[in-house]
Write a structure and sequence with these properties.
231 residues, mainly alpha, 0% strand, rod-shaped
């Protein structure tokens, strides 16, 4: 084993930029870019397929219709039917897309607006601010602080830990909804941008320490924060 490590060290000195010899990405690294899934995309794919098939059928029928030949006139009905199918598919898709967009917007507004109507959220937010500070110049939440609170065993300290975990899970839930396409990114950006960035920065040492055990822990929260930081 020592021989392999010595050889690897030599190779690192010779080829320091060779990517396969670089250390593995840290547990805090999140190379996967932020993206928003489009639940309605398969519908558009189906509509384009139907439209393409209808267009091919229309072109085929056009070459089969002979002006002045009554025997080919029934093909005009089939041609009109193909056009009607394509038009109906587009109408159905556009109507469904508008309904889905409106439902997503309404769902996002409901979730964001309801947070202050929920006593649990207000209670946990107040407890977090009182316990860890609510200003930019206050100390950040670290694993050492959380571990000390857990080790104390008091009910008050356990409640403080619970408040931090509650808010982190809340923002992870919001970020997961955005990435899955069920929550509107623009509405979240306009209403929660400052909160997402602040709470992530406030708890970043704790998040990174926890991610060393589970690399995907709160990953959506981190990706959303990085996305919202962009101008």
């Amino acid at each position: 084993m020592t021989v392999f490590r010595t050889a690897e060290a030599k190779l690192r000195q010779i080829l320091p930029d060779f990517r396969f010899l670089q250390p593995a990405a840290t547990a805090s690294a999140l190379p996967e870019p932020f993206f928003v899934k489009r639940p309605f995309r398969p519908v558009w794919v189906a509509v384009f397929i139907v439209t393409a098939a209808s267009l091919c059928a229309v072109l085929f029928l056009l070459f089969q219709i002979v002006p002045g030949d009554p025997a080919t006139y029934p093909l005009v009905t089939a041609l009109v039917a193909c056009v009607a199918v394509a038009a109906a598919s587009w109408g159905w898709a556009i109507g469904g897309w508008v309904a889905h967009r409106n439902a997503r917007v309404q769902h996002t507004i409901t979730i964001i607006a309801a947070r202050f109507a929920q006593p649990m959220f207000v209670q946990q937010l107040a407890l977090f601010n009182n316990s860890f500070g609510d200003a930019d110049d206050t100390p950040k939440v670290t694993s050492q602080i959380i571990d000390a609170l857990i080790a104390s065993g008091t009910v008050e300290d356990q409640a403080k830990v619970q408040s931090a975990r509650y808010l982190l899970n809340y923002f992870e839930f919001i970020a997961s909804g955005v990435r899955s396409g069920e929550l509107d990114l623009d509405i979240v950006r306009n209403n929660l941008r400052a909160s997402v960035i602040y709470f992530h920065n406030k708890c970043e040492p704790y998040i990174l320490d926890q991610r060393r055990g589970i690399s995907t822990l709160l990953g959506n929260f981190t990706r959303l924060k990085l996305q919202l930081e962009k101008p």
